[in-house]
Amino acid sequence: MDKLSLQNPVFAAYVIAATLMILKAVGMSWLTVVRMMQVKGGFRSPEDLRKTPLNPEPNVQQLEPNERVERVRRIQLNDLENLPFFLVAGFLYVLTDPSLLLARILLYGYVVSRLLHFAAYASARSHETRATLWTIGSLILIFMTIRTLIAAIAQ
Asked: What CA–CA distances, in Å, run from 132 to 116, 119, 124, 129, 137?
């Protein structure tokens, strides 16, 4: 069976996990826009103060940071710092032909850790809570990466 086929259940698990993480990251951009529209602020660029149908009463204060908008931006930045590693590490891990059970635990475990991290960040939980959830995902990445490295060296 071709390792990079959806007929391979390990690759299919990776595709599910990867697409969920991509959708989550893209969703953060949409959530940023929604928050900006709700608070009518949190804009970053001076041209955002032009009068438009969506901003009929521009105000220079709209360029000031807004915590509701900035929180979403911080979550998105955290995703952008972490998800590319998952996408690459998970793909390479599939090539090691791992057991389906272990692959699902790792791939879906990473997804769950990132979704819980989002929930913790969005609800302003403590740094320790966010760090614990981040650590779980990071350890999963480290495990997959080391396992991939060992498999490549063994060839």
From this structure: 10, 13, 14, 5, 9
For the chain, the structural domain boundaries read 9-153
With contact defined as beta carbons under 8 Å apart, do 118 and 24 qualify?
A: yes
Contact by Cβ (8 Å): 90, 127: no
Encode pLDDT of 86-95 as tens digits.
Answer: 999 999 999 9
pLDDT in tens, 30-80: 999 899 888 888 888 888 888 888 888 888 888 888 888 899 999 999 999
CATH number for the domain running over 9-153: 1.20.120.550
